Each structure stands twice: as C-alpha cells, then as structure tokens.
C-alpha cells in the first residue's frame, strides 16, 4: 500500500461518481443560460412589435393629414414586420410573432425592415399609409 502510483478502488469510484453528477449539471446550466438569452431576445422583438402597433394606433386615432415618423432599432438583429389591415407580424431568426391592431384602415400590406425609418400617415378617407 505504500507504493507510489497506487490508487485505491474507492478513490477511482468516488471520482467516477463526481463526474457522473457534474457532467449533467454542466449541460443543465448551459440549457438554462440559452433559455434566458432566448427569452430576452423574444421580449426585445415583442416590444418593437408593440411599439409599432401603438404608433399606428396613434396615427389612426388622429385626423386626416396626421403623420408620425418611426425608426426601427437595429441593435437586436435583422427582423421584418408585416403590416396588414388587422394585424402586425414580426419575423426574425426563423421565429414569428403577431399582435392585433385596433380597427384601422391600413391602405395595403407593408413590409418594414430593421434599422430603417418610416413615416406613418393618415391620408384621404382615413387610410393609413406607410412610406
């Protein structure tokens, strides 16, 4: 037992048990971190979508000729917002989110891209136009 380099079976077994417990914990912590980053990303894109919906609703609630300028942020990556008569849809990283618009008279279907500025205006006959 006093020989150098001799390892007992108990020592090998205890190292094996420690590794057996530690490896799944590492994978679990990695999964939790990825999940929290994913939630942050989803919230950021949801806030952008809600902001655009609020801006369209504000323009819609005012009289003809009222307009408002918006600049879509680009710090959360590339995304595309589709504006239709009753809903807004955002698409990013293979994901999709939607929100409903209050009754508004959107002129046609529009595509808004991240990092660009747009003018939302209420034109003739109360139609919402985005340029």
Number of helices: 1
The helix/strand order is HEEEEEEE
Cα-atom radius of gyration: 27 Å
- Quaternary assembly: single chain
Distance between the termini: 85 Å
Largest sheet: 4 strands, antiparallel
Shape designation: rod-shaped
Overall mean confidence score, pLDDT: 88
Portion in helices: 40-55%
Strand order of the largest sheet: 4-3-2-5
Q: Are there runs of 5+ residues with pLDDT below 50, and where?
A: none
The count of strands amounts to 7
Strand content: 25-35%
**Strand pairing plus helix content: what structural class?**
alpha+beta
Structure explained in plain terms:
- This protein has 131 residues and is α+β, with helices and mostly antiparallel strands.
- Helices cover 40% and strands 26% of the residues.
- It has one helix and seven strands; from the N terminus they run αβββββββ.
- A four-stranded antiparallel β-sheet has the order 4-3-2-5, covered by helices on one side. Strands 1-6-7 form a three-stranded antiparallel β-sheet, covered by helices on one side.
- The longest helix is centred in the N-terminal third of the chain and has 53 residues, at 9-61.
- The radius of gyration is 27 Å and the shape is rod-shaped.
- The N and C termini lie far apart (85 Å).
- The model has no long low-confidence stretch (mean pLDDT 88).
């Amino acid at each position: 037992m006093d020989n150098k380099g001799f390892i007992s079976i108990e020592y090998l077994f205890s190292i094996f048990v420690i590794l057996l417990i530690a490896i799944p914990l590492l994978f679990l912590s990695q999964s939790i971190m990825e999940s929290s980053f994913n939630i942050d990303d989803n919230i950021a894109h949801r806030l952008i979508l809600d902001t655009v919906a609020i801006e369209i609703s504000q323009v819609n609630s005012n009289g003809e000729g009222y307009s408002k300028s918006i600049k879509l942020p680009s710090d959360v990556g590339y995304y595309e917002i589709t504006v239709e008569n009753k809903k807004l849809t955002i698409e990013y990283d293979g994901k999709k989110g939607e929100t409903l618009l209050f009754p508004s008279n959107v002129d046609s279907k529009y595509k808004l891209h991240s990092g660009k500025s747009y003018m939302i205006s209420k034109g003739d006959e109360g139609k919402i136009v985005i340029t």
